[in-house]
Amino acid sequence: MIDLLIGSLMTGWDTLAGYLAEHVVTCLIPAFFIAGAIAALVKKEAILKYFSPDAKKSTAYGLASISGTVLAVCSCTILPMFAGLFKRGSGIGPATTFLYAGPAINILAIVYTAKVLGFDLGIARAAFAVVMAIIIGLIMAFLFKSHDADTKKKTAAMPSVPASGDAEKPRWVIPVFFVFLVGILIAGTAQADWLIKFPVIYVLTLGTAFLLIYYFERDEVTEWGLETWDLTKKIFPILIIGTFALGMLSFFLPAETFQPFFGTNSLGSTFLASIVGTILYMPTLLEVPVIGTTFGYTSGVMAGGPALALLLSGPSVSLPSLLVISKVMGPKKTIVYAGLVIVFSAVAGFIYGNII
């Protein structure tokens, strides 16, 4: 019994140490800084005010579908934002698109997926998530037209959201600032010698520092730091504990156990994976080691189709989140929403595993 405990602890530590060594410095730290900058410098109101039932569909669904990269939210923080949108008069289509897309294309999750599970799976996750979010939102809007009709009546007298003022700094500053941050991330994760990568990272860091010193206010820099720290303290401890626990679990339940269920790209495997993702609660980023280690994607045990299906369903939907959503928009709409996520996640996984 003691030997089993020691063995599981050692396996957990080895798994954690491997993830820390390979991904934290070059991947997660730059990604946290990028996500913090997005949260601090991109005004949420500029996105959220376009979600009303009367808003232009291309604008409403387009913004809602990419909201995850802009707002840098996870599955736990998207729910109160969704509830606020829903109660303040958002159309059900843009609101559900926002609800799904927020966690699905979280900038941290996409970068981490591409780094750990492969660039192709990371890109597929982002692309399918955007397309699925729009389709799911459009179907919800079509099925529940009466909701939007009632919403228009209730919100007709509501004042419009005032436009935010223009920033005093030149327009090119913030885009270039993000280019520098993304450049640091790309250079750090590139498969190249550090003698090549280090000078590039050094120059980009100097450029970032120059912009911070000469073009940003102290309050903006402070907010960036606070947002970065807030994301780090919320996500990183869970990732550490979860990765260690998954390593211990793999000692008792090796990845080969799941091969009969997730080892092929059949529609049955992708459908099962999407159901598992819908039921399980996986904090942001933890879905990556779950798929890579527990289900064995990185060792070739889990096929690509089920892996993508779980990536598309797991971060956005879980049994606890569905219970919360049902209190916001009712059981009927929640069941339809969950069913759409399951079906489209399974189909997307099947397409990725067999066609792409």
Automatic annotation (TrEMBL):
Highest taxon in the source lineage: Archaea
GO cellular component, one term: plasma membrane
Subcellular location: Cell membrane
Statement: the UniProt record of this protein carries the keyword Transmembrane helix: yes
Keywords attached to this entry: Cell membrane, Membrane, Transmembrane, Transmembrane helix
Broad class of the protein's primary localization: membrane
Transmembrane parts of this sequence: 20-42, 63-86, 92-114, 126-144, 172-188, 195-215, 235-255, 267-286, 306-325, 337-355
InterPro entries: DUF318 (IPR005524)
PANTHER family per UniProt: UPF0718 PROTEIN YRAQ
Protein family membership: Belongs to the UPF0718 family.
Protein name: Permease
